[in-house]
Amino acid sequence: QVQLVESGGGLVQPGGSLRLSCTASRNIFSVYTMGWYRQAPGKQRDVVASISGGGSINYADSVKGGFSISRDNARKTGNLQIRSLKTAHTAVYYCNARGDYSIATYWGKGPTVTVSS
C-alpha cells in the first residue's frame, strides 16, 4: 500500500502562482506514472498533467503553457507548478500514482485551490 500526501493548496489571487506537492510513503515514482487531476465544482475529475516512471510528460491541452509537472525520485515527491492562476482554476487537485507495470493505483485526498480576489 502507498499513501500519497498532497500539500500546497489554499486561497490564491488571480494572476498568482502556486506549487502543489505530492509525497509518497514509498519510493515508487521510477515505476509509476504520477498524475495530477482536478475536479471543479459540479464537474468531473480530469487529468491535467502526468509524468511517467521513465520521465515522459503529458499535459491536457487546456493547461499547456501554464502548468508544469516535475518529480524528485530521491525525495519521493512530485510537484505541479501553476502560473497565472485564473478563477477557472478553482478546483480540488488530486495526486495519482498509477503503476507502469502493474494495475496498482493510488490517490491522495486532494487539496483545494481557490482562486479569488
Task: Provide structural commentary.
With 117 residues, this protein is mainly β. It contains no helices and eleven strands. The protein has strands at residues 4-7, 10-12, 18-24, 32-39, 45-51, 57-59, 67-72, 77-82, 91-99, 105-107, 112-115. The strands form two sheets. Strands 2, 4, 5, 6, 9, 10 and 11 form a seven-stranded mixed β-sheet that branches. Strands 1-3-8-7 form a four-stranded antiparallel β-sheet, with no helix packed on it. Strand 9 and strand 10 form a beta hairpin. The radius of gyration is 13 Å and the shape is globular. The mean pLDDT is 94.
Layout: helices, strands, pairs:
Blueprint: E1 4-7, E2 10-12, E3 18-24, E4 32-39, E5 45-51, E6 57-59, E7 67-72, E8 77-82, E9 91-99, E10 105-107, E11 112-115
Parallel strand pairs: 2-11
Antiparallel strand pairs: 1-3, 3-8, 4-5, 4-9, 5-6, 7-8, 9-10, 9-11
Q: Please state the overall shape, judged from the principal axes of the Cα atoms.
A: globular
- Helix amount, in percent? under 10%
Query: How far is the first residue's CA from the last residue's CA?
Result: 40 Å
Number of strands: 11
Radius of gyration: 13 Å
Unreliable stretches = none
Nearest-integer average pLDDT:
94
Q: What's the tally of helices?
A: 0
Order of SSEs, N→C? EEEEEEEEEEE
Question: What structural class results from the helix and strand content?
Answer: mainly beta
**Strand composition percent:** over 45%
What does the main sheet amount to? 7 strands, mixed
